[in-house]
């Protein structure tokens, strides 16, 4: 998408949603090589569809996958979370706002050491 080429994808949630929402390519069924070939042929034969899908894909990629903007959004979220967490600790609510710690599951067997491939003994 970001390179300005139309997309052909299967109906996976994120990819198909982006393609259908922004009109930047075609969605074909899983494990259907004839449908994939038809989509390639259709994009190859239809210059208007190909150009429009490519242009829309590039615009969608720049808008929705703009890493500097996403990093700024995440940084803003993180700073807000830290400020809120620090404020509740000052107010004496630290016990109530404590984040749960991840603990290993109990009772599940350990997979043990991995065998080394290509070596015996």
Automatic annotation (TrEMBL):
Ribonucleoprotein recorded as keyword: no
The EC designation for this entry is 2.4.-.-
Q: Is this entry keyworded Hydrolase?
A: no
Q: Name one GO molecular function term.
A: glycosyltransferase activity
The residue ranges of the Glycosyl transferase family domain are 1-59
Q: Which InterPro entries does the UniProt record give?
A: Glyco_trans_1
Q: Where is the composition biased (Basic and acidic residues)?
A: 83-96
Query: EC class of this enzyme?
Result: transferase
Region of interest: Disordered: 83-121
Keyword vocabulary terms for this entry: Glycosyltransferase, Transferase
Task: Write the signal peptide boundaries.
Answer: none
Q: What is this protein called?
A: Glycosyltransferase
């Amino acid at each position: 998408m970001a390179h300005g080429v139309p997309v052909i994808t299967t109906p996976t949630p994120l990819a198909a949603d982006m393609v259908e929402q922004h009109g930047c390519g075609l969605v074909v069924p899983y494990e259907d090589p004839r449908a994939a070939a038809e989509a390639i042929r259709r994009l190859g034969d239809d210059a208007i569809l190909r150009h429009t899908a490519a242009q829309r894909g590039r615009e969608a990629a720049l808008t929705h996958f703009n890493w500097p903007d996403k990093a700024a959004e995440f940084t803003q979220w993180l700073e807000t979370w830290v400020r809120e967490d620090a404020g509740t600790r000052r107010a004496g609510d630290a016990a109530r706002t404590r984040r749960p710690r991840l603990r290993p599951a109990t009772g599940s067997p350990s997979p043990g050491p991995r065998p080394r491939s290509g070596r015996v003994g």
